[in-house]
Every structure is written in structure tokens, then in C-alpha cells.
Design a protein that fits this description.
mainly alpha; 17 helices; 330 residues
Length: 330
């Protein structure tokens, strides 16, 4: 309970900051507040002590609840309106981003687990994708901390850098919006970046981004199938019978169900707004919990290679997304 109350207070503070400074997404602020709480004198002892069990619960279980409700933001009709060429391009960008980011992370000697989580977060939908893939692969909660920190860092970087490049590159509002949706990691970060170019840019950015979000389900399913094969092979090799993990966890099934429910058109705008608010609260608490496990001193000692890999992957995805944006809009 102490950790959950702390996370709730942090989420309220994150929304307050976002209200005062709309350019700063509430989810990004939740991570930042978590990192501050983990490293400031006094607060560090609290987050590492009595509050830790609740913060770990938030980072794991509330994250899954947030992923389920994320499906309410994805409407199949809106995605199909982009056209088949745009859909193929977005899928290609996600696939190339995933493979390229994984390769870059391994080139910088990150572990296979960290490389997988970074590739998932960068290519699909930030911390939500990291949490989903970690759950499917049964990756330790502690191993998600660094990937979440990296995806938050690069997503925040995009908020400041991409709008500065729009004019020098001669991008129209539509192209800039498609670029943002195809290359920025988290939904909130996409909104914060695209809105600098107006409502037309924001509209296409959100649809392109949500198309990437929809790919969370098949990616999680593929990760689940691969993990089952590994578990089966391990059990065969050592002569034991290991418990088989599910191909797709229940929270991913819930995500798909929410996509279907949103696509029926049955839910009123009021219910969709309520779902979006609940999703933000759950994910905000989860991200604060994950951020509160980041120790800056440890990150500086062990995360230098990871930061360089993340920046290289961020540049790769930005280039891929820009190329796709020109083709989507033109």
C-alpha cells in the first residue's frame, strides 16, 4: 500500500506538470519523477524500502492493465482509412526498426534480453511494448528498467528535435505528422511532438502511431511462440518437464478485445475518454514504479553502451520513418 499511494501521488503530480506545460507528456513526467524519487536523498530510502513492494506491483501488474485499456484507443476503421500502401509501409517500418534496433543493440554488446526489450519498445509503442514482451518472455521485472529509461530518453529527445527539423527539411504538416507517428515511441510523445505542426499533423500522426500499436499483439504472439519452443527444448535437453507459458497472455487478449470493442462503435465518447484516463493513470503509476528503480550512478557505470545504442537506433528509426512518411502522404 505505501508504494501504491506513492505512485498515485506521483501520477497526480505528473498530470499537474503536464497541465502547466502541455509539451511535456504526463507519462514521460511519471518516469522522470520516478527517477528523481530513486536518487534524491530521503526519497531514495523510501522508494528502496517500504514503498518498494507496491512500486514493483505497479510496474508489473498495473502496466498490464494499462496495456489492456490501450486497445480502446485503436479503431480498425481509422487504420484501414490510411489505405493498404500506408499499412504495408508502416508494417515494414516496424519490422525494419525492430530488426535494426536489435542488431544495433547486440553490436553495442547489450544482452539478448535487453536488446529484445529495447527493440520492442523503440519499434512499437514504448514502455507498453516493453512490458508486454517482458511478460510474454517471463523476463524479470528488474531487467525492464534500463529499456524503459532508454525509450523515455529517446522519446523525450524526439519531442525537442523533430519539430526543429520540420522547416529545414521542408516538410508539410501531413508529412511531419506521418513521420512523427512512424518514428516516435510512445503515444503521448507522438501527440506532444505532432501538435507543434497543427491539427492536420496531429490527426495523421495519431492514426499512424496507433497502427504501430496494433502490431503489439502479433509481436507478443510471436515472442510467446518462440519462448514456448525454448522452454520445450530446455525441458527435452535436461530431461525435465517445464511448465509451458501461454502463447499469448490474458492481458494481450484483453488488448485485442478492447480494439474490437472500440471498432464496433458501441462505446460513446464519454466511455472512451474514461478508458483513456484510466489507461493513463495505470500506465503512469507503472512508469513511476519502473523509474523509481533507476539508480543514476549505476546507470552511468553500466548504461553508457546502452545509451549509445539507443541513440543509434533512434536515428535509424527516424530515417526509416521519414522515408515512409513521404510515401504515405504522397
Amino acid at each position: 500500500m505505501p508504494g501504491l499511494v506513492t505512485a498515485a501521488a506521483a501520477v497526480a503530480a505528473a498530470f499537474l506538470v503536464h497541465g502547466l506545460l502541455p509539451a511535456l507528456p504526463a507519462m514521460t513526467m511519471a518516469v522522470v519523477l520516478g527517477v528523481l524519487a530513486a536518487n534524491l536523498p530521503g526519497a531514495a530510502g523510501w522508494t528502496a524500502g517500504r514503498a518498494r513492494p507496491g512500486l514493483d506491483f505497479a510496474g508489473k501488474h498495473l502496466m498490464r492493465g494499462g496495456i489492456v485499456l490501450l486497445g480502446l484507443k485503436v479503431g480498425i476503421g481509422d487504420i484501414l482509412d490510411l489505405g493498404w500502401l500506408a499499412l504495408v509501409l508502416i508494417v515494414a517500418v516496424v519490422a525494419a526498426s525492430f530488426g535494426g534496433t536489435y542488431a544495433i543493440a547486440r553490436l553495442f554488446r547489450l544482452t539478448p534480453v535487453t536488446s529484445l526489450l529495447v527493440a520492442s519498445g523503440f519499434s512499437i509503442c514504448g514502455a507498453s511494448a516493453i512490458g508486454a514482451v517482458a511478460a510474454v518472455r517471463r523476463i524479470r521485472h528488474a531487467d525492464t528498467v534500463l529499456p524503459v529509461a532508454l525509450v523515455t530518453l529517446c522519446g523525450t529527445l524526439a519531442i525537442g528535435v523533430l519539430p526543429l527539423l520540420a522547416h529545414p527539411l521542408g516538410l508539410s504538416a501531413g508529412v511531419f505528422g506521418a513521420w512523427t507517428g512512424a518514428s516516435v515511441h510512445d503515444v503521448g510523445q507522438v501527440v506532444a511532438t505532432a501538435q507543434t505542426a497543427g491539427t492536420a499533423a496531429l490527426a495523421i500522426a495519431v492514426v499512424v502511431k496507433l497502427t504501430r500499436v496494433l502490431l503489439l499483439a502479433p509481436v507478443a504472439a510471436v515472442a510467446g511462440v518462440h519462448h514456448r519452443r525454448e522452454v520445450r527444448a530446455l525441458g527435452t535437453a535436461d530431461g525435465t518437464s517445464s511448465a509451458m507459458p501461454p502463447v499469448v497472455p490474458l492481458f494481450v487478449v484483453g488488448f485485442v478485445a478492447m480494439v474490437g470493442l472500440r471498432s464496433t462503435g458501441w462505446l460513446s465518447p464519454g466511455w472512451l475518454d474514461a478508458g483513456a484516463m484510466a489507461q493513463d493513470i495505470l500506465l503512469g503509476a507503472a512508469l513511476f514504479g519502473l523509474g523509481s528503480a533507476v539508480r543514476i550512478r549505476t546507470l552511468l557505470h553500466t548504461g553508457g553502451q546502452a545509451v549509445l545504442a539507443a541513440l543509434a537506433a533512434w536515428l535509424l528509426i527516424a530515417v526509416l520513418g521519414l522515408g515512409a512518411a513521404f510515401l504515405i502522404v504522397h
